[in-house]
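Lay summary

Proteins are chains of building blocks that fold into shapes. Our project writes down both the chain and a compact code for its shape. Here are two examples, one after the other.
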Amino acid sequence: MTQNAFSMNNLRLAVLIDAENVPRYSIKSVMEEIAIYGTPTIKRIYGDWTSPSIGGWKASLLENAITPIQQYSYTQGKNSSDSAMIIDAMDILYTEKTDGFVIVSSDSDFTRLAIRLREAGQWVIGIGEKKTPSAFIAACDKFTYIEVIHESSEEAIRESEESDQRWQMQQRGKRRQASKMPTVKVPDEIVQLIADSVAALAGDSGAVFMGELGNLILKKQPDFDHRNFGYMSLSAMVKSIDRFETEFRQTTDPNIKHVFVRDREANASNE
């Protein structure tokens, strides 16, 4: 099944959360992130709910309508949720109508599960902390860091509150917003990743549709996220890099324009 990473909002998703490998404070922002990709028709969280270490989840689960699945810790020091999540995932795969799975965990034990689900034609989204092993990240179609999601959510809340307080001071607000523009330099390896992707897709015009570019980058590097570098969109990030130029092209819909990207260095070498 071929999915478009930038138009997945109609996907029916099974969300499986490893309570022992996800911080409780992040659940609300994680669920908001998942809503970008599709509709979570199944939402389950796994853990030993008799354990005091995860006993504070109740409010978060009720608020987000997530079903807790009890899994006792039979062996001390071993994550008890792994087997239950894997068994449920395979049951859902063969008995439910889903387009994709969201595995919320930082545990590499779910690497084989992600691979198996993709082999079955399911879109697999991984969400975990920055400590997540690279093997699990690579096994997903898309991987997003919890730290980035949480920071973006807090920033959105702050901006909304500030907007309510300063609506009568628009000029001052614009200056404050400008001060929030990203200052993180995009690493050379990411610039090269973008350039290689543009080269792979560029036709005779040398221009590449931003949506196609984003799809290819995700296929090459599943944990790529423009927010990792402080940008709210891929377009904003690409525009900030001197090597690339962007242009808007009108579509048949007068209200919609598509963004295209060119690599200045590649174009110069071809002249």
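And here is the second example, written the same way.
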Amino acid sequence: MQVKDIMVTPPTIDKSAKISNALSIMEKKNTRRLLVTHGGEVTGILTMRNLAKELGTKKRTKPASSLPVVTAVTKNFTFVKPATKFAVAAKILKEKGGVLFVSENEKDVLGWITPNELIGAYDFTGRQVKEVMFQTTIITINSSERLVHARHLMLENNIGRIPVMEDGKLVGVISERDVAVALQEFKDHVPDNYQENQIKNLLVADVMSRNPITANPSSSAEDIVDFMVNKNIGLIPILDDSGKLVGIITRRSLILAIPTLE
């Protein structure tokens, strides 16, 4: 299998467009990344994580509707040829993260491969959830914590989603999208001189998704992966028979579980 067999056409946006417009496109297309271009040339990638980062900085007191996309662009991508083998592509994403731009000349992008395309193309038949999940150093947050703390944990640990706990029990998940959208709405509606004080009132419980889909360690990895890919879900909490959180499956954990060439 070659990368040209699994690449998809990326949704795009101009670097001069506003962040509020970018969030609308991401919501409509159910994506956490956009290819940023200008004058027909690739500028970089706009990610939900970078939006959460930029919208949360103290210097960003202006409404999201007035901030250009270019303020949150990242260069975390790698060019690969269309004939690049699947195993090579998997190795690159393991080591570098980001996305792969498929191009013959490292200029014209024919398509891209995100972690979703990669894990969707791999056959996880016969493997159990416990073989592909992260089960050590699971970062969690309490629902009563401030939103800014959730944002800090995501950026500090380079993660996009965090399981939310109450009294030791899983009650939800907060994502980088939740953070970015909440910060956009906050900065669009709260005057500049009130933002520093009122941002403390935004709590994880206010924006998280409750009652997340979960799985058991002995569940079929193939079924869980299919569900994640088809529904574009980035994190599945893993609970044991007593309801205790014992692991998580993320796109990153699945990529690391794919055998690659050394």
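What can we say about the second shape? The mean pLDDT is 92.
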